[in-house]
Design goal:
591 residues; mainly alpha; Serine Threonine Protein Phosphatase 5, Tetratricopeptide repeat; Rossmann fold; 5 strands; 4% strand
Length: 591
């Protein structure tokens, strides 16, 4: 069983006539037919041919290698890893085995393991472009965007036409918020591939998110450019409707969406339809549209995979363990050279992005937006490292994503920091935590109505019941932190912010040790000038404060039974009730 010059297991190809191969008479024939089936795009046939070879008392490394590649082609990453782990032990010189093993680990969401496997390839061959590229993809999914970008730029130095490298480089530049560089990268890419409607659509979406609506309209492809691809046509018309919404042409936008839905049958348009129907007060139709969109997302394979990670159960375990009391800030002060970060948490859609734009406009702050920094620190503790080492792991992670200007205070904003607040008494015992509040029914309902990028948490916003469960548990973690560390928690309610902006923001700034600065009042204009906001709230932060979203849940009261059951008992603690206006207590319990 030899190897071909191309580095693949060598063997006889299927006959040019396309006739079905005869049943193998010998293991060697089975091996050759398995190779032909794999290279001919028939992995199931290859799997059947390899089965008796894998039952042999001594399985050759080449057989394990091909079996792993076949299972990967079939989408079974766990079985692929089993075969490929055996293959790299038996034939460690075969780079394909290591690359396949890393890919199988990546497919299972085991990004650290995948990166380590690709690193072993690079120790032998530092400029292996496949290992560099695959490691970049693992880092990209892990949120290590700067590391991923460095790898892709190295790939492009080695092979300028490497498929996908230019495209993913542009995506990473956008995710990092480097709007100018991302714009140039996208423009060069789209100019080179001007006939690719998917790329034009992505570029138009980037331009819209960068508040460059006129350019977005110029690059947006027509729906018929996607041919039979109804999903592309629907996304194109959805973005076209969004551009109409920016011009306050709401009825035209809704007509466009309704027509696109009739023509394409794509229910993901339901999110945009629902938002417009809500604007017109047509709540029954709006809820039906949101339900269509969520049902379509819930049927996607990625949704099933993410649900299996049982994020709400993970948060419930954290609640059961509780949070250790913090010492007083003076007793707990950390003697590091760097300023202790401030953590900004809240339910999704509770105004955290709006608040980070406000605080980020202050000349003494720098915002870190939605990275898994606290989870990284927690992982270090779980691995047996000391609090000081966990703190260093935190800062190493931060430094991979932003260049912190010396002396500035990092505002580390992530609604999903809530499950990791129990880490703070150990790692940053003197850290201040800003808890952004909006009536929990409004925040939870808005999460259900939002077309989030799916992750282990957001996948549970596809159903009203699981939305209620997760939001209640996130709120409970915030409550536990307030009770354990009352001197470090600072509440800010969206409803109060709308009515008394400067006083409320001044109170928060003073709570984190800063004075009011006039730049904070210009946050909306600055957001529009500086471009990208990398969360679903990108449009709202440029509009300034508005009260139209307060009490929206009242119009949907008939659907909110799960909210009353799960979230309702927590309302009084956070100063809310089921009236249109909350019951006060903006500064009770923890200020």
């Amino acid at each position: 069983m030899g190897r071909s010059k191309k580095g693949r297991p060598a063997g006889r190809q299927q006959s040019a006539t396309g006739k079905k191969a005869k049943p193998p008479a010998t293991p060697q024939e089975a091996w050759q037919q398995a190779i032909a089936a794999y290279e001919g795009g028939k992995p199931r046939q290859a799997q059947n041919l390899l089965a008796p070879l894998l039952d042999m008392p001594s399985v050759p490394g080449e057989v394990s290698l091909l079996a792993g590649l076949v299972e990967a082609q079939l989408g079974d990453s766990r079985r692929a890893e089993e075969h490929l782990r055996r293959a790299v032990q038996l034939v460690p010189e075969r780079v394909e085995g290591w690359l396949g093993l890393g890919n199988a680990q990546h497919m299972q969401g085991r990004f650290d393991a995948a990166v380590e496997t690709f690193r072993r390839v690079l120790k032998r061959s530092p400029d292996n472009p496949t290992a560099l590229y695959n490691m970049a993809m693992a880092w990209m999914d892990q949120g290590r965007h700067r590391d991923a970008l460095a790898n892709l730029e190295r790939v492009l130095e080695l092979q300028p036409d490497w498929p996908g490298a230019e495209h993913n480089r542009a995506i990473l530049l956008a995710r990092l918020g480097w709007a100018g560089r991302a714009h140039d990268a996208y423009e060069a890419l789209v100019t080179k591939n001007s006939d690719d409607p998917w790329l034009r659509l992505e570029f138009a979406g980037f331009l819209d998110q960068s508040n460059r609506a006129d350019e977005a309209a110029a690059w947006l492809p027509a729906a018929d450019a996607f041919g039979e691809a109804t999903q592309g046509a629907a996304q194109s018309e959805g973005l076209r409707a969004q551009l109409l919404v920016r011009e306050a042409r709401y009825e035209e936008a809704l007509e466009l969406l309704d027509d696109a839905h009739r023509r394409t049958g794509e229910d993901l348009l339901g999110y945009r339809q629902g938002n417009l129907l809500d604007r017109f007060g047509r709540t029954d139709e709006a809820m039906a549209a949101f339900r269509r969109g969520n049902l379509a997302r819930s049927k996607q394979q990625v949704a099933n995979r993410l649900r299996s990670r049982k994020y709400p159960e993970y948060v419930a375990e954290k609640i059961e363990r509780g949070i250790l009391p913090c010492k007083s800030a003076e007793q707990a002060a950390v003697s590091d050279e760097r300023r202790t970060p401030v953590f900004l948490v809240g339910l999704p859609r509770s105004g955290t992005t709006l608040l980070d734009r406000m605080l980020g406009a202050h000349p003494e702050t720098q915002v870190l937006e939605e990275f898994d920094t606290l989870r990284t620190a927690e992982s270090a503790l779980v691995a047996g490292r000391s609090p000081a080492e966990a703190r260093q792991a935190y800062w190493d992670y931060v430094d991979r994503h932003i260049d912190v200007t010396e002396g500035r205070m990092v505002i580390d904003k992530n609604p999903l920091h809530a499950p990791h607040l129990d880490v703070l008494p150990k790692v940053f015992p003197d850290a201040r935590v800003i808890i952004a509040l909006r009536h929990p029914y409004d925040a939870a309902l808005s999460s259900y109505m939002q077309n989030f990028e799916l992750n282990p948490a957001s996948v549970h916003f596809l159903d009203l019941g699981s939305t209620a469960t997760l939001c209640a548990r996130l709120l409970t973690m915030m409550q536990l932190f307030e009770q354990a560390c009352p001197e470090q928690a600072i509440r800010l309610r969206y409803e109060d912010l709308v009515t008394d902006f400067q006083a409320q923001v001044t109170r928060v700034l003073q709570g984190i040790g800063l004075d009011w600065h006039a730049d904070v009042a210009e946050y909306a204009a600055r957001a529009g000038e500086t471009g990208m906001v990398t969360t679903p709230s990108y449009e709202q932060v440029t509009k300034g404060l508005y009260s139209s979203s307060i009490g929206r849940w009242q119009r949907y009261a008939a659907w909110l039974g799960p909210f009353r059951e799960e979230i309702g008992p927590l309302l009084p603690y956070f100063g809310y009730d089921e009236a249109m206006e909350s019951s006060g207590g903006a500064e009770n319990a923890a200020t």
